[in-house]
Amino acid sequence: MKKYLKPIPLRVFLIVPFVLQIVGTVALVGYFCRRSSEKTIERLANPLIQEINDNVKQELNTYLSSAQKMVEDNVSLFENQLIDWQNSEKLGHYFWHLLKNHNLEYLRLRTIENEYVGVGYFKNQLEITERSKLNLNKLYAYAPDSQGHRHHLLNIYDEDNPLDAVRFTEILKNNKAGWSSVYQQTDDLTQMGIRFNAPVYTANKQLVGLLGVDISLKSINRFLANIAHDYSGIIFMVDREGYLIGNSQSSPLYVIKKGEAKRRLASESSDSLIKFVSQSIFSTHDYRTNLALKSLTFQTKNYWVKTVNYQDKYGLNGLIVTLIPSANFRSEIDKSNQLNALIIFSASALSLIIGVLTARWITRPILQLNKAAKNLARGDWEHSLTFNRTDEIGELALSFADMTQQLKTAFRTIEENKNQLHAFLDNLPIGIFIIEKNNRVLFINQAGQTTLGKGMIPDLKLEDLSTVYHIYQTDSDQLYSPQKLSVFKELSREILIREDLEIRQENGSTIPLEVRTIPILNLKREMGYVINTFVDISERKTMSKLRDNYQLELEQQIHQQTRILQESEERFRRSFEDAPIGMVITTIKGQLVQVNRALCGILGYSEQELCALTFQNITHPDDLDTTIHYLKQLLLGKIHSFQLEKRYLHKEGYLIYSFVCVSLVKDKDGNPLYFIGQIKDITQRKQAETELKRRNEEMEAIFQAFPDLLFRIYLDGQGKRI
Questions:
Q1: What CA–CA distance (Å, rounded) separates 615 from 619?
Q2: Helix, strand or coil for residue 599?
Q3: What is the dihedral of CA 282, 287, 290, 292, to 10 degrees?
Q4: How high is the pLDDT of residue 166?
């Protein structure tokens, strides 16, 4: 009889009873809960959201009034001559203290004569800025020290955007304190904010200028987020045209269109909930009227929405929108759910009895499979699993046995491949260590252990690497940051090359290293491992030091010659004309004014032809940006001279390699007059270096072609494998 009956599938026993139980129970309980909870929520929502709106409006007033009061207090200090607005350095120091004590973002004073003093954060860096009568076209930015005094010059900016001058003029015409409209920073259009401005007068009621304090829209975002967190809701604020001023979700307040940052409408917000609410309520109401309590459903969740007008005497005018999830109004609902609990308990008890009986029949063989799987995870491959069943459990047991055999074979193959890989890496002549994605050091080969001076430490973490193996930042007593040897936290997947570390072995020797960090990608093109290869570059460092000494000596000679030239114009002229190397004098803009015979010989031009050109005309295009960069450094006074190797264009069209030294000649007042340059033709040396490199590469290729190991024997008798 049994052989004629088909086995009943396991999923029939598992699914059908539970589906019948759950559907019946949930439908019954849901019907009563919904009727009771909807009535309770609607009764509680309106007064609670009204209270929340009042609190939001009050706290926003408190938040903004602190900036208003600070500006108005300081306007009084200016009028009472307690602050000297004409002393820009003291004024900047005073603004620095205000910024720190009031947790502001930017504080500034702009006079009617376009003088300017400001303190604040620009691109996340604190700066003190000044524009004086001496140069109204430049704005100087200084980095303050820990006491608020100017420490060093950060940057020099050009004159303000003309739009800033227009806003400044409009505010002066109003002749009263007030908030500006939302503005964008000139140098970073993604930074937006509002500014509270107040006119400043002297004791004689003469207008000095405007005192202003900035509050970024990001700060308003954070403020609204703190308030919304207390109520587990969402708050956003819009102006009367529907543009976002702030939101508790910290979603972007701008959108990039055709390469420009534009303010974002609330109905176009990147936050899907804010966008949905704005489109829903403002499609029938404008941004100038309050909205009564309204219920909205978004992605199966219910929200209560209410708006409130916000307007102050200083010109701020907008609308605050508050969203509270219906789930927050659960305190009284629990009372009505007590009745539902009895129903749920009865239905659940019945479901439990049926479920236990069904699950017991199902789980008994599954537990046996689980035990076998745990044995397999511990490496026990010998225990077999058999069932005298013909249903899905029996088929699963057969599949499990086949999988066990396949895994056993696969793990054996992986272990063999792993041993072969370790043997290969141990025989490489360069040091190698591999880092896993969890920053654990997985492997260090023999050459690496020799260079590091210690063997492989089991379970070594990346953060302990520098301490264990004495890896230091080059020419310092600071341990090298292990994070630089990993690219897991970097966006770049390129090979990184570093030469800023060294090993200090216990015998006192120091080994400078070149480290190449190579990311290894998995099949999903994600970084799974990082391989670091490192080699001893002691010889290269020695050669570099010799070259630096040579350049230093040459620079000293150039400075000495420059001083001699400044002392005697006549001797300079003779030295200039008879110098064995090229000499040139150029204007600040690069026009060649005077050249000597040696330079004419190097470049193939006559003196008249060269003086009709600029240095840009005869410089190789690839070296032009570097030259201009150093010339700007000279003009700014950051360096006194510079030297570099660069290429010139001969009159016949071929390249001239040269070593160039340039300095800036100033008058007695420190104003720049002209550049003087010395040019040495190193074309033959470059050609010799190229030929030497080619020969070294040929020798290296010959050495690599030998099947046996080659050793280099030094005079002290020690050998080094090549």
A1: 6
A2: helix
A3: 0
A4: 47
Q: What is the dihedral of CA 691, 695, 701, 705, to 10 degrees?
A: 160
The secondary structure of residue 643, as a DSSP letter, is E
Mean pLDDT per block of 10 residues along the chain (722 residues) reads 53 60 67 65 72 81 83 84 83 86 82 86 85 85 89 81 56 75 68 84 84 84 82 83 84 78 83 85 69 78 82 83 77 61 67 64 66 70 64 69 75 78 78 80 81 79 80 84 64 71 82 83 76 82 80 80 66 73 90 89 89 90 91 89 91 90 88 90 87 84 62 51 48
Contact, 266 vs 236, CB < 8 A? yes
Question: What CA–CA distances, in Å, run from 406 to 381, 410, 411, 413?
Answer: 11, 6, 9, 11
Query: Residue 495 has what DSSP assignment?
Result: P
Place of tokens 């009367």: 240
Distance CA(100)–CA(128), nearest Å, equals 13
Number of residues written out for the chain: 722
CA distance 21 to 23: 6
Cα 92 from chain centroid (whole Å): 30
Answering whether pTM is above 0.90, one says no
Is the CB of residue 255 less than 8 Å from the CB of residue 262?
yes
Query: How many other CB atoms sit within 10 Å of the CB of residue 564?
Result: 12
Number of Cα atoms under 13 Å in the Cβ half of residue 526: 5
Other CB atoms within 10 Å distance of the CB of residue 244: 29
> What's CA 316's distance to the chain center, in Å?
34
Name the residue among 472, 453, 445 with its Cα closest to residue 531. Answer: 445
C-alpha to C-alpha distances, 615 to 618, 650, 652, nearest whole angstrom = 5, 12, 17
Cα–Cα distance measured from residue 174 to residue 629, given in angstroms and rounded to the nearest whole number: 46
Q: Report the DSSP beta bridge partners of residue 319.
A: 238, 309
Instruction: Give the span between the Cα atoms of 722 and 709, in whole angstroms.
Output: 7
* DSSP characters over 16-39: HHHHHHHHHHHHHHHHHHHHHHHH
Q: Residue 108: what are its φ and ψ, rounded to 5°?
A: -145, 155
Amino acid 303 reads: Y
**For position 4, what pLDDT does the model report?**
47
In the sheet that holds 294-298, the strands lie side by side as 244-247, 234-239, 317-325, 301-311, 294-298
HSE-CB at 562 with a 13 A cutoff on CA atoms is 21
- Residues 311, 295 contacting (CB under 8 angstroms): no
Say what the alpha-carbon torsion angle 504, 508, 514, 518 is, to the nearest 10 degrees.
Answer: -40
> What is the signed CA dihedral for 95, 98, 103, 105, rounded to 10 degrees?
-20
Per-residue DSSP letter, 289: S
State the DSSP H helix or E strand holding residue 567, giving kind and residue range, or none if neither: helix 538-567
> 328 by DSSP, 3-state: which?
helix
Residue 586: DSSP 8-state:
E
Q: How far apart are CA 11 and CA 393, in angstroms?
A: 11
SS (H, E, C) 60-127: HHHHHHHHHHHHHHHHHHHHCCCCCCCCHHHHHHHHHHHHHHHCCCEEEEEECCCCEEEEEEECCEEE
For residue 204, give both structure tokens: 């004689």
* E runs forming strands in 174-221: 178-179, 183-184, 192-201, 207-216
Rounded CA gap, 557 and 562, in Å? 9
Cβ neighbors of 94 (< 8 A, separation 6 or more) are 83
Please name the amino acid found at residue 485.
L
CB atoms within 10 A of CB 56: 24
Considering only CA atoms, which of 62, 69, 70, 68 is closest in space to residue 95?
70
Structure tokens at 696: 């070294």
Sorted by sequence, the CB contacts under 8 Å of residue 53 that are 6+ apart come out as: 306, 307, 308, 320, 322
Q: How many CB atoms lie within 10 A of CB 492?
A: 8
